[in-house]
Amino acid sequence: ARGGGSLEDLAAFNSEAVARAIFASKILIVTGIGHETDFTIADFVADVRAPTPSAAAELTVPEKKYLKQQIDDMHLDLLSIMTRMMTFYHQKVDDLHGRLKSPVQIMNMFKQTMVSLCLRMQQALQRRIFHDKDKLVWMVQALKGTVPDIRFSRKQVLDRHHQLFRAMEHCVIQKNNRIQHTAATLKALNPASVLNRGYSIARTLPDKKVILDAGKVNVQDPIEIILAQGRVLTRVEKTIHGKDHI
């Protein structure tokens, strides 16, 4: 850019060297040479010609209002993207939380399964008893008067009935003991049971990672302490390293 001048003053912008340099430049070139009526070879080689140096400045430097609008638009776009990402990950966490089953739910499902199996075994046993009873009645009616020892056959059926009943009772006792053992194990492993015994869980904030080593936190770090009833939000005042802490 150059203000107005004589032809001699503008001669430099008509030189071959300047024209070739402008043409070879990889940077956008805007010219504003002389007055609006002045034309030079540099104007024709440049990417954009402005009538005056002031006009060239206006073309190359955007208005403050336009730049602010661009920044505001980018800020809104960024907020929108962050909101969508937060919503997505919140939904993902809620979905994973819904799929997790507590130890009590697992125990109840296992108990219902065992009750259903015991009921099916009892029904199968009853059907077998009725079948054997009907078979015995048919045998008595068919062989009455020709078979001398009907009582022996009846005793066999009764013995089988008692054997099946004892087997079912033994199975029910075994399954019930297994349910009670599993329930006790799950109850002991339940984090709520550990908290009810006076223990607590310390987690870092805001990522909520369980603190297992005092060396993983620093003084003044915010932490969360989960109790059997409620939570405590506090900051680290001092850390003591080592395992001899009880």
UniProtKB/TrEMBL annotation:
According to the UniProt entry, what is the EC number of this protein? 3.1.11.6
GO cellular component terms, alphabetically, are: exodeoxyribonuclease VII complex
Which top EC class is given? hydrolase
Which superkingdom is the protein from?
A: Bacteria
Q: Which UniProt keywords apply?
A: Hydrolase
Q: Which residues form the signal peptide?
A: none
| Molecular function, one GO term | exodeoxyribonuclease VII activity
Q: Does the keyword Acetylation apply?
A: no
Q: Give one GO biological process term.
A: DNA catabolic process
Enumerate the spans annotated as Exonuclease VII large subunit C-terminal domain. Answer: 1-233
- Coiled coil: which residue ranges? none
Q: Spell out the NCBIfam families in the cross-references.
A: xseA (TIGR00237)
**What is the name listed in the Swiss-Prot or TrEMBL entry for this protein?**
Exodeoxyribonuclease VII large subunit
Native source species: Desulfotignum balticum
